[in-house]
Structure formats: structure tokens, C-alpha cells
Automatic annotation (TrEMBL):
Protein name: Cytochrome c3 family protein
Signal peptide: 1-19
InterPro entries in the cross-refs: Multihaem_cyt_sf, Tetrahaem_cytochrome
Pfam families in the cross-refs: Cytochrom_c3_2
Subcellular compartments: Cell envelope
High-level lineage: Bacteria, Pseudomonadati, Pseudomonadota, Betaproteobacteria, Burkholderiales
Length: 109
């Protein structure tokens, strides 16, 4: 029997199970947001900057409050306000940049 492959939004493919983890762009697209929501002037060649993220997600302090029950709180750390894309990657898997020195069991969307 031949397995069928279904693609959702042309990004996430399923064949009975998830074949790839969704990335940040998938999460935004699923919520009806187009590229222009993050990319200034819809210019996909330029990186997304923190001010674009904070338009929707509020201040960095608001994000620290939102993740206050996460231990350690990734938005309240010894680096202070970091660029969101240090951890959150739009079109590839996100990372826990803290793990360059530490070994935290954090999930980064």
C-alpha cells in the first residue's frame, strides 16, 4: 500500500506522523499572519528585528512576566534584553542559546 503525503501550508508534511517539527514561521502562518507581519516592508532578505516581535508580543519585560514560571526564566537572565532571534528562529529550528554555557531543559518555540 502506498503512503500518502499531506502538506499543510506547504511547510509541514504529514504521513501518519509529523515528519518535521514546525518552525516559528509555521506557527505564525497557522494564526493567519503573513510574511509582512514580521519582515519589515515585506522584505524577506532582511532579518527580523526585536522591535517587530515586540509589536505583537509586548515589551521584553512583559515576555519575562509571561515566562516567569519557567525555571530558569529565559527572558530574565544575566544578558538582559536580547534580540529575540538569538533563540527564536523563523525558518529553522529554534535554539536555547543559554545552552552554549549551561544545560537547561527548556523548549523554545
Amino acid at each position: 500500500m502506498k503512503k500518502e503525503l499531506f502538506c499543510i501550508l506547504g511547510l509541514l508534511c504529514l504521513s501518519g506522523a509529523i515528519a518535521a517539527q514546525p518552525v516559528m514561521a509555521d506557527r505564525h502562518a497557522a494564526r493567519g499572519m503573513g510574511c509582512e507581519a514580521c519582515h519589515a516592508a515585506n522584505d524577506k532578505t532582511r532579518p527580523v528585528r526585536k522591535d517587530a516581535c515586540l509589536k505583537c508580543h509586548g515589551s521584553y519585560e512583559a515576555m519575562a512576566k509571561r515566562t516567569e514560571k519557567v525555571v530558569p526564566n529565559p527572558h530574565f537572565n544575566h544578558y538582559g534584553d536580547r534580540d529575540c532571534t538569538t533563540c527564536h528562529k523563523g525558518h529553522q529550528q529554534s535554539v536555547v542559546s543559554c545552552n552554549a554555557c549551561h544545560q537547561f531543559d527548556l523548549k523554545t518555540p
